[in-house]
Amino acid sequence: MTLPFPPAPYPLARPRRLRSSPWVRRLVAETTLTPADLIWPLIVHDGTEDRIPVPSMPGVDRLSPKAAAEAAKEALALGIPMIALFPHVDASIKDAIGTGATDPDGLIPDCIKAVKDACPDIGVMTDVALDCYTDHGHDGVLEGNRIANDASLERLAEQAFIQAHAGADVVAPSDMMDGRVQAIREALEANGFHDTLILSYAAKYASAFYGPYRDAVGSAKQLTGDKKTYQMDYANADEALKEVAMDIAEGADMVMVKPGMPYLDIVRAVSETFRVPTFAYQVSGEYAMMQASVARGWLDEDRAILETLHGFKRAGCAGVLSYFAPKAARLLGA
Ligand code: PBG
Asked: What positions does UniProt annotate as the active site of this protein (predicted)?
């Protein structure tokens, strides 16, 4: 095709003008990332050592309650509003129904108290699911070879109650049973915990990217089969909107999409559709994948951290759970 006029000797529109110096880039940035956007997941354990490195997650340690309290102080100093606790308990206390999950003197209640004593001003979020406490590694109760939905709800509601009672600010069901948010909300209301927040893992996909976490919490060896009868199929997007709608109707205050980076389309759809605080979890496998490249010198760690975390904000996240949280907060000048 020939143009009816000769091309101008210069472009009239030059988007590069808005990129030409740091100050103008800052001035026109559409989104921002600050330490207040971060939630720091901590793996805690009931062993005697204060810290044990997790081999599949370089830079992440399993922490004693005392070390978790120190991490919480560090988070507060860095401007990170909330930590999230995930338990590694000794295999000897695991059983079919995850009895340890509802022990009022168990690891998580201990950690909540240690953190709140040391650091009353930090938000504490806890994971509601049985997998860290069951000898089969599933998030619910197993009947035959099926995860029994309704029998699991009672256990999960009791677990959330125990956590709230110990001082958790935010309970976060990650189990994907039907009706869990309602069961948990009813248990909280009936026991006077009217202000305990629920952040539901509303759109949680059955994912290969949880592998390193299952090592970290010691549930990998236990797990029989997979979690595909309760966690979502990664082929589906509309179904995520249905899950989120149900969780909000059942009393969730905030929702989460998980994993993170491969699911930013879901984050965008959820945040645009519901306009409720929407979070994403940059999970263990995403962390491990990046750390493995960094270790080989293939990826610039600092730049990759900020770029990936910023991507979550651009997609519509109110905040991000990331094992990089303290490092990112420091990079952001905290
Ligand atoms: C358990 C739970 C999982 C994660 C958080 N809570 C794993 C799973 O569903 O198997 C994964 C976190 C991560 O990979 O960083 N309900």
From this structure: 204 (schiff-base intermediate with substrate), 258 (schiff-base intermediate with substrate)
